[in-house]
Amino acid sequence: MQDLIAVGSRAPDFTLPDQNNQRVNLSTLTDERRTLLVFFPLAFTGNCEGELGLIRDRLPEFDNDSLTTVAISVGPPPTHKVWSSAQGFLFPILSDFWPHGAVAQQYGVFSERHGYSLRGTVLVDRDRSVLFSDAAEAGAPRDDSVWERALAAVQV
After folding, report:
1. Which of 14, 55, 13 is nearest to 38 (CA)?
2. Residue 25 CB partners (closer than 8 Å, separation 6+)
3. What is the pLDDT of residue 47?
4. What is the per-residue DSSP string for the chain?
């Protein structure tokens, strides 16, 4: 894993397909609102399902006039489509499939050893500056306080 992207640095732009195979571009998202990037290892796993379920269940906090949220994993769009439909995830789940984990690498949350991203949480301002960044160790769940700290950074 490289170093986690630092608060105050410029977030690398990217375009990735979502679960509906629609192209999603970070700079387009940040034109309108701050954007929370939620990197997760793999679909159909307990911790990932629970974490994204929290976003689903508290969606007005994560998708509103000042903030939008996207989840990012190395899984392919068809897998994300089936999983998001089954779980009722209404927010974009982006595929960092190919080049494998390239966006996660740019943000410093890709585990070469495991071949997937860590549980990274990055808040990007409208000017694409990083307002908040955090990552859990490989195999570790995201600390519950991460959500509150990330959402608090939206208010800054």
Report:
1. 55
2. 13, 14, 15
3. 84
4. --PPPPTTSBPPP-EEE-TTS-EEEHHHHHHHSEEEEEE-S-TT-HHHHHHHHHHHHTHHHHSSSSEEEEEEESS-HHHHHHHHHHHT--S-EEE-TTTTTHHHHHTT-EETTTTEE--EEEEE-TTSBEEEEEEPPTTPPPPTHHHHHHHHHHT-
Domains for the chain: give ranges and CATH numbers.
9-155 (3.40.30.10)
Catalytic residue check, 39: no
Q: Which amino acid is at 18?
A: D
The Cα–Cα gap between 116 and 93 comes to 15
Q: How confident is the model at residue 156 (pLDDT cuts 50, 70, 90)?
A: confident
**This model's pTM is above 0.85:** yes
The percentage of residues in the chain with a pLDDT greater than 90, rounded to a whole number, is: 88
Per-residue pLDDT reduced to its tens digit, 13-68: 999 999 999 999 999 999 999 999 999 999 998 788 889 999 999 999 999 999 99
Orientation of helix 77-87 relative to helix 46-57, angle to 10°: 60
Q: Name the active-site residue from 37, 38, 48, 130.
A: 48
